[in-house]
Structure formats: C-alpha cells, structure tokens
Batch of 4 targets.
Target 1
Amino acid sequence: MHDRYSYRAHEALVRYARHQPALWRLMLGLVLVASVSFALTAALQVVVAGMFPGDWLLGLADGSTPGAMLVLLGSFAFLSLGVAMAARLFHQRGFATVTGHLRPLLHQFGRVSLYLLGLSLLLMALPPYDMGPPMTRNLPFWTWFGLLPLSIAAVLVQTGSEEILFRGYIQQALAARFRHPAVWLLAPSALFALGHYLPTEAGDNALVITAWAGLFGVLMADLTARAGTLGPAMAVHFFNNVTALLLFGSPTSLNGLALYLIPFDLADVQALRPWMAVDFLLMGVSWLCARLAIRR
C-alpha cells in the first residue's frame, strides 16, 4: 500500500504533534473530546426539544425523522470542538495543524469530489441492479429536495468531524510517537470500526459491517498520509454517507433524511451479504479514484 516515499506529505501534519508526543496526552485528549461531545450533545437535544415540541423531534434515538437526523448529524460538530480544545490544552497546537492548511485541504477536497462525481455518473450509466423487492419512498421528493441543503451541510459536519478525530487527531498523535505506519494506520481504524459494531441492529452481519468500517478507516488513513491534509478522506467519506444517509437509507435507523429505504434491514444475511461485497468493491474503487485525483 505504501513505499518509503509515499507518506512524505504526512510529515506536514505530524511535525506539530511531535512537539508533545507523550501518549498520556492523547489519552487525556480523548477523554476531553468524549466529555465535551457527550455533554454538549445532551444539552443540544434538551434545548431543541424545548424549542420544537411535538412529533418533529421524535426519533432522536434512531434518527427516524428529518429533525432528529439533522440534530444527530449536526451534533458531530462537538467532536471537532473537543479536538480543538484537546489539541490546544494537551498538545499546545492549533486546530489548523490537525486538519492541514485550509487552501490545500479545500483544493484536494474539491478535486477528489469532482473525480467521485464522475465515478458516480459512470456508475449511474451502467445497467440497473436488481435489489429484489423494490425500494420504498421514504420522503416526498419536494420535502427531501427542500431539506437537501441542510442535509448536505449536516453530512459534511458529521463526516468532517469523524475525519478530524480519527484521521486527524488520533492518527497524528500516534504517528508522532510511533514511526512505523502500521501503528497509525491500523489503531485509529480499529477504533473507527469498533464504533460501527452494532450487534443488536445488524445481527449476524455486525462483524462484516465492522470489517468494512475498519478497512474504510485504513484507506482513509492512507489517503491522509499521501495528501498531507484531511481533504481527500473528507471527500470520500462525504460521498459515501450521502449515498447511505440521504439517498438509500436503512429501514431500521438513521433514515430520517433518506429519499428511499432499501428493501431489507441490516440483519438480513441473505439479502445484505451480496451488497456488502459490492460495497467493499466500491470502497476500493473510490479510494483508487481519490488516489488518482491527488496524484502529483
């Protein structure tokens, strides 16, 4: 996956973390990030529920309504706030040193997004796939379309914040302490995968979905190390979650902003396993597409 020269750009991110490489600083930082995120998310839900009483915010536990999904996705911004606080308090570094410089980040995000958009159009031009039972409409089209600007912004916040935490803060802190790429490629990806382990919801598919998330984390870590900013990983993550959250949602959870619902739930082994194989393939193609976009 890499050679000795592939990850030279990563040093632009890691060099600031090398000033305070002690692992106890990372541990305290993660405790702070979790505390800030938990406390502010709980406070936000209380405030918004008070401002908008009634059915609009029902489903905060599973994101089954548009309002609930917007709140849940938007609350991921508190992860970024926690990272900014942890970076300053425990590492004496600014937030921009975690994300990479803004101009190249935006340039790489835009370039990778254009390549992924082209890939998406190419896939749409292929013959249609048969998912078995037809998908069901989840939201009226114009309701979905009217919410789309807010939905896109919310997914940007959610995916960007996850990248800032896992491929930014954690990856850099480990790279500052351990030289071998295996540590900082695999350890944050394992944590990312653990966050996607949902045995109650996914049943016998839980380990497959967790493995998918783990491999996704490794590929995003690789993109970050090659690019020197979080822009490419943010773009790939964003396109993936737009598809999963805004276009074709699961019938069991996190579907409040989806236009359609897929015709099976996450625990359906017979129906989901073939599509997981397709997802693994698309993940690899998206990674290669992003690699091509940032190639110098």
Note: The chain has a mean pLDDT of 90.
Target 2
Amino acid sequence: MRKVIVAAVLASLGLLIGGFLIYGVLQLRRPARTTLTQPLYPGVTYQRVFWDDAEPVLLHLVKIDTTVAEASFLVTPPDLSGGMEHLAQTTGEFAATHNVQLAINGAFFDPFEANTPWDYYPKSGEPVNVFGINISNRDAYSTDTNWWAAACITGAQLVILQPGCPAGTEQAVSGNLQFLRDGALHPEVAWAQYNVGVHPRTVIATDVTGQIIWLIVVDGRQTDYSTGVSLADLGNYLLAEGVYSALNLDGGGSSTLIHNDNGHIRVLNAPYHTRIPMRQRPVANHLGVFIGQ
C-alpha cells in the first residue's frame, strides 16, 4: 500500500512539474515586449508598441492604407448546422479556412463560459450566436440593432455606425461601443465600468476618410507582461495616431491578431484563454482581410 501511495504522489508531482514547464514554455512564446514596426505588404504595416508606465501594456496595430493596399474584407459566413448562427472557430482556424492574410476576432457572442483550462464553452465546432448586426457577403444573418454599433464595409470603405449599417453593406461586424466618434472620445467611456476597466482589447478603427483602417489588439490579464488597457487610455492614444472612429469588439480572452504568411499562421499577439498564454479562444465570428486577391 505504501508503494502505491508513493507512486501516486510521484506521478502527481511529475504532472505538476510538467504543467509548470509547459506553462513556462508558453510564456516564452509570447511576443517580445519591445517596440517594432514591420511592413507586411504594400500599404500594410504592423506595429508593436510597449508601454511601461505604472503597469506594462503591449499593443499590436495593423494599419491598412486601402488607397495603396489591394485589400478586401470578409466576416465569417454563418453556419446554421448546429442550430445557431455559427460553429465556433479560433481566429487562426478562420484565417486558415478562408485563406485571409490578416484576421481578428469579432463580435460578442453567447453562450460562453470559461471555468478551467478543460471546462469551457465553446470549443471549436460548438454552436454559438453573435450579438448585434453582422453581415457576411451581403448576408445580414444577425440583425439586432437595438444598441450595438457595427463596422460596416463596402468594397474597401469602412464606416462605423451605431446602430445599423446602410443598405448594400457587404461585410459588417458588431461591437458594444463606438468609443471614438467624430474624432473624440464617446461620453459613455467615462462611466461604463467595462470600458474604463483594464482589459485585453480588440478594436477596429478608421481615419476620417474611411480609407485607412486599423486592426488593433491589446494584450492583458498577464501580470508583469501586459495588464490590458481602458478604452479611455486606448482612445487617447489612437486619437494621437490619426484615428477618427473606433469600435470596441469582443475582448478579454478572445482578443487575437493573426497573420497568415503564405499558409503559416502567425499569432502576432499573446492571447490568454482560460489562463493559458498563447491559447486561442474559439469564438463566433471574425474579420479577415485579403491582400492582393
């Protein structure tokens, strides 16, 4: 009996040590906390920005000049086979499936829970619904315009509206707040608790012409790496970068930025799903960008 107990203890200890080693390896895979500017395609630039003030914050920005880049867009098409609007996918799975060069996670969705690293919903392939108005290839499959804002795309032109999108919109993805509007912070940022709290973020933004588009992801909830940012602080930074309008998409553990580099799926940020670094969360829909197709 004593040998059995000792063996069980040693096995448990081995699993614990193995878990710590795996966790340490995953932490090492996170992007360096250094500032970087990297051209990806003509008219498309990736920028990584590190703030180290009171708390560390790591931002990732892809700037797309649609007057130069041959850019077109895709929101995840609906899949009703599970009885809801989508079957969940990670952002990397979406990018690989549709061969988009760039991708971010999209709208808030339901049902969702994240209890432990093995007990969470949805997993890839499980059914979910999105909130707000979402359009894929002119198919407005989700039309809740009660108060949700949306990034509405026709051709390479983007406009952020709250609520709804104009007739003829080709692609749209919904968010909970247009926190930059007409070149200024939206007043709701000052009081909405989720918006002033420090969180990982996913944002789509545009300049005053709608022809320069930013895909923005901020890492967070990772002490001593990146804690996240409030929408007020992020908004003030983006205003200084020339952003005129910005929409807050689903954030938290969903926040993911992907570069599909000739079939090699590169995770440009540090997603943090179920407290595991570099683990992508399966989400309902996504926004993808084709370059030169």
Note: The chain has a mean pLDDT of 91.
Target 3
Amino acid sequence: MKNYVLTPGPVPVPEFVMLEMAKPIIHHRTEEFEEIFYKATQGLKKVFMTEEEVLILASSGTGAMDAAICNTLSKGDTALVVNGGKFGERWLKICKAYGVNTIEIKVEWGKAVSPKVIEDALKENKSIKAILVQASETSTGVEHPIEDIAKLTKSRDDIILIVDGITAVGAFPVEFDKWGIDILIGGSQKAFMMPPGLAFIVLSKKAWDFNDKSDLPKFYLDLSQAHKNSLKKTSPWTPAVTLVIGLNAVLEYFEKLGLEKLFERHSILSEATTKGFEAMGLENFAKGCTSTALSVIKSPEGIDAGLIIKGLKKKYGMIVAGGQDQAKGKIFRITHMGYVDKADIISVIAGVEGILTELKYKFEPGSGVAKATQILDKL
C-alpha cells in the first residue's frame, strides 16, 4: 500500500529535492560548498522578507527556539509568553531551563491571542524583556496576529518580539523587516518541504544589541559565531551538507513560482480542506484565526478522532496527525505544506468520508469531496 504522509511536519518532499540530495556528498570546507551555502542564505532572505542575515542551524526548529532565548536574554530576565498550545507551552519550558522568569498569557486552544491583552500585560509589567509567540500554532491550527503584536514593540528599545514561524514562514506572509519583528524562526520540515534537520533564524539589529548583553550559556547554538561564519559563506560547525543542497532546490522553486503564488496555493488548499469538511458537518478547530499551513478538524460528537486517524492509515495508507493533551481524541490535523496537491486533499477528504461511513456518522456521501473539488479548481 502506498503511504501518504499528510502530517504538519514532516511533510511530503518533492522528487526534484530528493534527487538533488541523492547526489554524491561533498566536503563542507570547500569553495564549492561555500557557494551553495551562500546561495541558500540569500534565498532565505527573500522568504523571510528581510535584508538581515538568515542563519542556518543543523537542528530541528526547537534548536532555533532554544537559541532565540539563550542568545538574547539573561538569567532573571522576564519574558511574556503566549501559551495557546503545545508550542506556546514549549517557550515556557525553554525559559525555565535557562532561569528566565515568565509571565504567561493563557489562550484557549483554538483561539488567537488578543493584542490588547499583550498591551495590558506590558503596561502592568515594566520588567518584560521579550514577547514569545507562535505565528502559527501547529497543535491547534491558529494563526496569531503577529503584525498587530509587532506594533507594540517596534518602536521600543527595551523589549524584543520573538516569533516561532516554523509552520508559518513559507506558508503565509510574515514580513520580518516591514512589521518590525526582532527574531523569526523557521524549519525545514514544514513549508520548506524538506526532511527535518535544518532550522533558520534571523535577528533584527535590536535583537543583536540584546545578544551583546546576554549572559546565558551557549556553545553549539552561539548565534554570534553562526553570524560571523555565515558572512564568510560557512558555518562554525559541520553543516547538514545534503539538506543545504536540497534547500537550494526548494528556494529555486520558490523563486520560479513567486511568493505570492506560493502563499495563494496554501490559502486555496486550506479553504478547500476546511469547506470540504464543513460540507460534511465537521468544524474547523480554529475559527476566524485559521492558519493556512494546516487544517485542524474537530471529530464529530461521540466519535474519537483516534478512530479516524487509525482508519485512514490502515485502510488507505494515509498518515495524519492527532490532537495533543486536552485535544487528544477530539481533532485530526492535515498539512497543506510540502509537496501536497489537489489530489492529496481530495483523497484525504474521501478517505475520511469512507471511515465516517463505517462509523455510522450521518452525512451526505460525496459532499466533502464535491465542495473541495469546486474550490480546488482555483489552482
């Protein structure tokens, strides 16, 4: 049986990327690789919408989250953390590991944070040095209003905005320079449609000023070293050579397609998936704040989402993600990132229709596929 990986990371990888990565390995301390590395950093600037240097780390996205904290804050500093899902929760855990104090803004899962709540917290707590937030919360499918949040910090020298854009960068616009974000993070296994193993991070000039004063321990994730080496077309440690080669193939594809078309593609796939399931009577978990990177769908009342997930894998070879913690058994998550096309969306909706029919859920057979097909004609 053919397997379909439709999880929000890892995502399907295009054949042209895999073919590039299948070429013979080259040594990283050579002019040949320096040019490959430099080309990747320049291409990343366009996707991150910045003139600043985008650093490439050999790690998962969490490595860049860790680096964002230990390179800019100091022990005893206070960070304001938006916690609306598993990855907002991760910010709290990283801060705790480094002895950074936190003020938590708890957001109901499936909802976006209100910038007014953040503004009020900043007024009440003058000691806050950083705001930590997700652009796209992968566990809930929520897009947080980063542009509006950035307005609260852009003109201030005493506070930085750190954004986890791991399931945002490349899926929808996150304008680093224009909005005034201070740190933005990306990951290879999401909209960059590659295997896991690379993280990307960019710092504003303000964030580099914070870096100068940071006293937290750092070695492998020392961004000042990564920055110095990146300007010389290399990295301080052994890079993930094969993945960087594959990254260039992706960036060339993005350049040819154009960012506007890339974002539009994610948006149409998102709309088709959401409205396809709505036609079957299934709701989107994130309403009015939906990330176009993935669809998070609520299981029908009385049906454990785990049965849908297991049924898709066993009967159709389709692998989708489930809910975590309080959302376990209540939702299933489907990617729009990576090498996903119209046929994949139609297939997974048809698969869910088949499983729900077996589970005696009452709906009009074919309604989801019909609605999704209609919308996917826009592509």
Note: The first strand starts at residue 4 and ends at 5.
Target 4
Amino acid sequence: MSEPILELRGINKSFGAVHVLHDVDFTVRAGEVTALVGDNGAGKSTLVKCIAGIHPTDSGEVLFDGRQVSIHGPKDAADLGIEVVYQDLALCDNLDIVQNMFLGRERGKAGVLDEADMEQAARRTLASLSVRTVKSVRTPVAALSGGQRQTVAIAKAVLWDSKVVLLDEPTAALGVAQTRQVLDLVRRLAEQGLGVVLISHNMNDVFEVADRIACLYLGRMAAELPTKDVSHSQVVELITAGRSGDLGIARPDMAAV
C-alpha cells in the first residue's frame, strides 16, 4: 500500500444551521484510484469543493505529502497539485483543444502567445495518456464526442504536473464505448503515479477501476476500505443505510442532512 498523498482528518462543514460534513476522514494514495460514493445529499460535492478550495472547512486538518497545509482557495489547491474535473467539464465549445487546455494559463512573452509551445505540450500530454481518439489538437471542442471532451478535460487537469486529480461523474453521460475509453484513462492516471478520486454513482465503474472505496452517508464517512474486501451489496447498504454487517456507522444520525 502506497503512502497517502492527501489526507483529510476530522473535516466539518456547515452552511448556516445545516451541518453537511461531520468529522470526515478521507485518504488519497498515489498510484491508486479511490472511489467516493454516496447517495444524493451525502456530501460528496461539498467534500470535493473543500479539497479544491472552493469551500473553506470549519474545522479539521488537511495533509498533503505528509505535511499539514491550508487551502484557502482554488489557487492554493492548484499550487499543491490538486486538479478537479467537474461534471460540466468547463470547456469552451468555440475554442480548440489547445486553447481549452491552456485557458487562463496561456504561455507566451510580451503579450504574444507561444502557440507552437502550447500545441507541443498538448500533444505530449495526450500522448502520455495514450489518447488515440483525438486526431488533431486543433479540433474545436464543439466537434468532439462526449468521450473525447471528457478526455480533453482530464488531459487539461494533468497538464500542470498535478499529483491528485478528482473526477466528478466522468462517465455519467457517455455511451458504452466512450465509457470504456474514459475508464481506461482513469486507470492510466493511477499507473502514472497520480492519486485519483473517482466520484460516481455507477457501481460497475467503481468496482472495475477503483482500488479503494469511500462511502459517505449523510455527511459521515461510513467506511473506507479496499475494493477487494467489500461486495457490491455491502457498498449499496453503506450508501443507503450507513451500515452493512460489521461495517459502517454504529448509529447513523437520522437527523443529519
């Protein structure tokens, strides 16, 4: 088992009177895919946004590479090497692949863009991920399929020497063939030594690519354990009831939100 690259300890987050995250512990290890699963309203998105620096935590510790860090905004997360690929992908249809990958981080001198350098870096990144479905990095995003768009969004995230990549429902709107491409890409990210967090409702995807599964239930971490040590039905029970046999929360707080 590899050393944790990202650790969350005792994370709490409230929005007014609503306590969304309750003393959540969460670990991401380099070279592994950790699936973060839970029902709607379990707190998955809030936890991801706390990691990404969008929401400040109320209490708890965040450790990165073994040292305690403070994440006050998205720039702090990006500087550490944490990138998030949201479900809407945040791509601009009117721009090509290169322009999207460097959007807001363009390279150049004296106000002149270095198009050749950016194009070469985009090609190199896609090649390192063994992406063969994109014929030209100058193809407008509007002309890409759903799977190709997801691939571009993931490549954009790893372009910046990231160490942890969080993927929010990457296969939600994809067909069978495109889902296969994205899942293969997720595994390649882990094989390159990145810590990958996969947020998904699709249990088949989770059990296929995840090394560990973390189950959130009403804002509490019900269990976090190796995929090989848990069954499909146990994960469903942890998601829906917070407990499965000896696993999970002793007394789920039914009043939690």
Note: The CA atoms of residues 237 and 244 lie 6 Å apart.
